[in-house]
Structures are given as structure tokens and as C-alpha cells.
Amino acid sequence: QVQLVESGGGTVQPGGSLRLSCATAGFDFSRYTGVWYRQAAGKERELVATITGISGSRKYANSVKGRFTISRDNAKNTMFLQMNSLKPEDTAVYYCYVLFDIGYWGQGTQVTVSS
Which has the closest alpha carbon to 94: 29, 24, 21, 16? Predict the structure, then answer.
């Protein structure tokens, strides 16, 4: 059974940091591109960052470039999102996503940036 489980969300002050994790199971994660999305209240879901399977090539949304870093540990079937210099506009539910045979989503983890 394919599973994606996010963790690491929470509340942080502006300028702070959080590290999100996405633990996967049920397929060979190393072969597939991993994606982080986020959705703020009342807004559409936004692509944040992607990382390819074997080469680990990375892409970022302009809004997070230079502040967020996506990474993966294929041996542990896990993907990460290191978020630094957080801003109130980063507040959202963050989801991980993998396109395997079909698209799979995690349940989401809330990130709140507030003073």
C-alpha cells in the first residue's frame, strides 16, 4: 500500500526555520520525482519545490528560492523540505506528492508563521 506521511509542521516566528519530512512506503521512492506543494487558506494549491529521483535535480518556486531547500534520502524513502527565513506568507498546509502509477498525496502538515 502506497503511503506518504508528512511531519515537522508547527508554529514559528518570522525569520525562523522548520524542517518538514515526508516518509514514503509501498513503492521504490528512489525512482520517482518528489514534490512539495502548499495551500494557504482561501488560495489554490501552489507548487513549492521538486526533486528528481536518481539525479536529485531540484527546482523551486520563485517565492521560496534561496530560503527553502528540498532534499531526499533514498535509503530511507524520505523527502525533506528545510525552510529558513520563514515569512507570514509561508503560512499554509504543506503536502508531499509523488506521481507513481497514479498521483499520491500525503495528509498535509500545517505551517504557521506568526509573531
Answer: 21
d(CA 107, CA 105): 7
Amino acid identity, residue 48?
Answer: V
* CA–CA gap between residue 49 and residue 109 (Å, rounded): 16
d(C-alpha 68, C-alpha 57), whole Å: 15
Identify the bridge partners of residue 55 per DSSP, sorted by sequence position.
none
Q: Are 96 and 36 in contact (CB under 8 A)?
A: yes
* All residues at 6 or more sequence positions from 68 whose CB lies less than 8 Å from its CB, including other chains: 48, 49, 60, 81, 82, 83, 84
* pLDDT tens figures, 61-106: 999 999 999 999 999 999 999 999 999 999 999 999 998 888 999 9
Distance CA 90, CA 92 (A): 6
| Residue 74 burial (10 A CB sphere; 0-12, 13-18, 19+) | middle
